């Protein structure tokens, strides 16, 4: 869709980028990902734990007014029931540094990594995980409530179940539908109870749970089976939304791609596509999907924040067109009456992309992992123009 005129975003719109602790901080060695021999190691990552202020200064210079980050549970509670006040102070300073740069924090309480003491007790499969999570949340929120308004409880639990229990290619590597079901039940309870705890400690807080929505299309549009499978996949996207809808103050949507669905080949996204249409991860670039997802979610009548959207693109040639085209469709959704209030690009900087290690380059900022130097990519300056002007210019 070509841009015809400047597209103005609503006043007060939040513009930012997202990161998560294990992917950028460095020096996290007490969690399941760091301990599992099968996984690549994040090691020093981007040394963001040390350079956070420098990174926030860059985000600010790029015109951003919000920032999504996560707290590392294994730093804050290194042993069961023992909270680390030095780690807490660190995050207090991180949040103060964000405020000093006028960046509104969106804080994720759990982004895929579990403290080792919980991982060895079966992690989210263990019903006690709900209480453990709640006591961690209580500690964190009572101490950080003055610095955070937007809380995100559990990042993409459905992606975690898929990768940890069904495929499985992430810890805990348990190929079992029953275990996945147990973990799912506990994750839902954990969100609901955490929601109540946060609201009790901080009634003005805004709380949600980020969900990864892909768009699904039938590979063969004349095949009723493919069509039904695509509908089913879209429905399955909502497994953490439907039971939690009364415990969400806004929708937190992570959108990346579309998958083609076929009875013969399952869920894929590279059928007959040219390289131009794919990211370095092989994910289809399908900007309209963000609009199609938001139209489906309109019935929830909740404000929406896009808490992740982005691509791996080492060349940086596709990044700005990707962001621009998603913003055009996002604007279209706003015009159709959907109350979208913010957008976070994934990610502020290159980082540790889970099982794929350090190869994929998602960052607005490039990292030299040897020297830890930061380099702003050209696409970041393009995005900055939108952040600064609150509009998408022609
Ligand atoms: C999302 C994750 C995030 C990052 C991006 C590429 O599913 O939340 O940590 O890995 O994908």
UniProtKB/TrEMBL annotation:
- Which protein are we looking at? Glycoside hydrolase family 1 protein
The molecular function terms of the Gene Ontology recorded here are: beta-glucosidase activity
Active-site residue list: 308 (nucleophile)
A GO biological process this protein is involved in? carbohydrate metabolic process
Print the keywords alphabetically.
Glycosidase, Hydrolase
The species is: Candidatus Portnoybacteria bacterium CG06_land_8_20_14_3_00_39_12
Alphabetized InterPro entries for the sequence: GH, GH_1_N_CS, Glyco_hydro_1, Glyco_hydro_1_AS
Q: Which Gene3D superfamilies match?
A: Glycosidases
Family according to the record: Belongs to the glycosyl hydrolase 1 family.
